[in-house]
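yo

u said u wanted the structure for the complex thing, so here. seqs first:
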Amino acid sequence: MPPHGSTSTATRIKSVETSLTIIEELKRQNGATVTELAAAIDVSKGTVHKHLTTLREHDYVVNNDGTYQIGLTFLDIGGYALCQFDGIKQVESKVRELADRTGETVQFSTEQHGRSVVLAREAGHKGVFSRARLGKRFHMHQISGGKAILAHLPKERVQEIIDRHGLPAATDATITSETELFEELECIRDRGYSFNKGESTDGLHAIGVPLMGPEGDVLGAFAVAGPSHRMHSERFKDEIPDVMRSVVNEIELNLTYS
Amino acid sequence: MPPHGSTSTATRIKSVETSLTIIEELKRQNGATVTELAAAIDVSKGTVHKHLTTLREHDYVVNNDGTYQIGLTFLDIGGYALCQFDGIKQVESKVRELADRTGETVQFSTEQHGRSVVLAREAGHKGVFSRARLGKRFHMHQISGGKAILAHLPKERVQEIIDRHGLPAATDATITSETELFEELECIRDRGYSFNKGESTDGLHAIGVPLMGPEGDVLGAFAVAGPSHRMHSERFKDEIPDVMRSVVNEIELNLTYS
DNA sequence: TTCTTTGTTTCGTAATAAGAAACACCTGTT
DNA sequence: AACAGGTGTTTCTTATTACGAAACAAAGAA
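structre next:
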């Protein structure tokens, strides 16, 4: 007899969710104390403490002078997940090559659960700022790489992703209309690469080129990003895309025979 | 009244530990099904299923065609933890520089919970194999970087680490005696850098140089590793150490004024 | 088709996670 | 030095809930 008339059996485990919430909050706050966490997520200090003790036991969190922080076990497991990605070594070296040849910031991302995840990243010598970071997630429709990937996913998959995550705006230029997005994707498919003109960050332009697997499936996308004052006309429309396509061609050939 | 006469109150949360065990097992097995996991960690299928559902909800695991895999959320959080490390950008660029100048594999690692964790890694053009990987953990006494760090930790801290993790052997050359280790550390402190002569992997030699913070605390260590047939005599004993020390000097200066 | 194996759900109960409050510990203040 | 105010930690009790067993569903294979 469940006292609170909810559906009797839950399909998720509450205490695990609490732990995950704590981790999320710890990341959001850049570290926190027991009391801060207890207040933030509305559970008792004692409970928070027990969760932290459990997580600390396995190095998922660490305690530096009283404040708890995210531990490097996440990097361990995340690094493992990264290595699982087929051809990641080659991708990393191509990202480097592109950064060297263009001088701009280059990243490679793939799709997981409808979000774009950064798997490799390299800042060129012109060293532009960038919000990207290993493992960082973005909405796919907001960035060049994400759009390049979407353009090569089955339409129903794209629809699923839209349904799940929506089309939130990051700037005034973000595509927020479903039909507009589908038109854009069509366009990208024809052209072979995608543009991002301040759709994720004001003043930031980028070019995205998809990486296709041997079976015609899209594995991810490379993106070269830089400030709009450097990324325009010929260089933006042709030169950099050409470099990118030749680099991606190489890696696609390598992946086929390995 | 606890039926099993154990100490009544636990300080850890069992269901969270189960989830963590599942994640660990998932990593160990390179993905697994519900039934496989249930068998491996000895809990019921139903329980495993509920854990996986909870973890999947937050993208900690993903389900590819029936088998569950580690998800990229770990990379997200791990990447965050990595960025928290002070001066990581400079460290990464110096690792690159060292890889370019020596042609060997270079890594930077720090200490957490008595283990050495790889924070940056770069293979030089001579491209030697290496078990290292972003986030990978090693026993500190088995590797050059780890020993370089230990040499600059307070003695009681080193003792703590030994007590917690022991001195397991990886090869015949691994240091397994406490007194021998302390002598070696003394030696490293005098010399300023450390050697690894096949102590972690047969045929692999490496040099470790500590990175010291402004307050005389050790932040981590760089290591240059290569096959023993390339890493010997002058090059091993002087040339590479000199390059490393000059690079580390630079970064130490930069860190002081930033 | 039927049989086998897997993933998922249901359900009752025994285990246990969570809160409240006491305790311990530190730090700064008066 | 004593104290006050804030931590983190532990204790204890109860209501919650996580667990296993078994039923159910779904998907291949024979």
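Residues 8-9, 11, 14-15, 18, 43-47, 50 of chain B lie near DNA strand D (CB under 10 Å from a C1'). The domain at 85-256 of chain B is CATH 3.30.450.40 (Beta-Lactamase).
cya
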